[in-house]
TrEMBL record:
KW Signal (keyword) present: no
UniProt KW keywords: Flavoprotein, FMN, Oxidoreductase
GO MF, one example: FMN reductase (NADPH) activity
Domain of life where this protein originates: Bacteria
Residue ranges constituting the NADPH-dependent FMN reductase-like domain according to the UniProt record: 6-148
EC number: 1.5.1.38
The protein's name: FMN reductase
First-level EC class: oxidoreductase
Length: 238
């Protein structure tokens, strides 16, 4: 039976309240509304100490494990981070360090960030997009960057930002629709449906089921990353 897509937001701000969380939540809800799905936003701020408690996923708290599993099971992910020293926060990276190496293959990702000014807006393109290229995810072509002046009292106050969110949703909807067509949702999880699997070490002394075809054919994230996935999905959308 067809199911509705679930959009999961991840806010990498270490503070609460947080402009980034407000932005991520708004974008996740907009995508959920446009795709007829549901959304959840995960704030990493409350998980700050727990994420630093162990080097490997198996040693992390049940709360963190749950958050990781929720992100890995999402149909669409909206990620967001404040600019800290011109890149995403260490907290944001720490969380994604624990996501399975092949858990986000072909997964649609919406990139967002906030900053004190527009000076570091390109962190979306130059820091975030390559990270999700490593994961071989389908990063959507339009990212959203907002500066402090786009918010008042931790609410979006800028019509221009709202317009950019609407534009991002409407321009990427055809691509998303082709990718998360409810008729094909059963086949949407590549790892469980389409690909051979092999078992190899996850560096934690344990074993992890992984994507044999990706390992064999995708020698580098550059060759098999978001660019290739985007072209493929765009062709299917046409
Ligand atoms: C440690 C630290 C480093 C920061 N570095 C930058 C930066 O390099 N560029 C920038 O535009 N803003 C920088 N900022 C400002 C934050 O990115 C900005 O206030 C952001 O909107 C905060 O998001 P939040 O409310 O979600 O925490 C920095 C703030 C902090 C606390």
């Amino acid at each position: 039976m067809a199911r509705t897509p679930h959009v999961v937001g991840v806010s990498g701000s270490p503070t609460a309240p947080s402009r980034t969380t407000v932005l991520v939540d708004e974008v996740a809800r907009s995508f959920a509304e446009a795709t007829g799905g549901t959304s959840t936003t995960i704030e990493l701020a409350p998980l700050l100490a727990e994420l630093g408690a162990a080097p490997f996923r198996s040693g992390l708290s049940p709360r963190v494990q749950q958050a990781l599993e929720t992100v890995e099971a999402a149909d669409v992910i909206v990620v967001g981070s404040p600019a800290y020293r011109a890149t995403y926060t260490g907290l944001f990276k720490l969380f994604f360090d624990h996501i399975g190496q092949y858990a986000l293959v072909d997964k649609p990702i919406v990139l967002t960030a906030t900053g004190g000014s527009d000076r570091h807006a390109l962190l979306v393109e130059h820091q975030m997009r390559p990270l999700f290229g490593f994961f071989q995810s389908l990063t959507l072509p339009l990212g959203i960057y907002a500066s402090e002046s786009d918010f008042r009292d931790y609410a979006i106050s800028s019509d221009d930002l709202r317009e950019r969110i609407n534009t991002t949703v409407s321009r990427t909807l055809p691509l998303l629709r082709s990718h998360i067509d409810p008729e094909s949702l059963g086949g949407f999880n590549w790892l469980s449906q389409h690909l051979d699997r092999e078992v190899f070490s996850d560096g934690d002394g344990g074993l992890e089921q992984e994507d044999q075809r990706s390992a064999r054919e995708c020698a580098s994230a550059v060759a098999c990353g978001s660019g290739v996935a985007s072209a493929d999905a765009l062709a299917r959308a046409a």
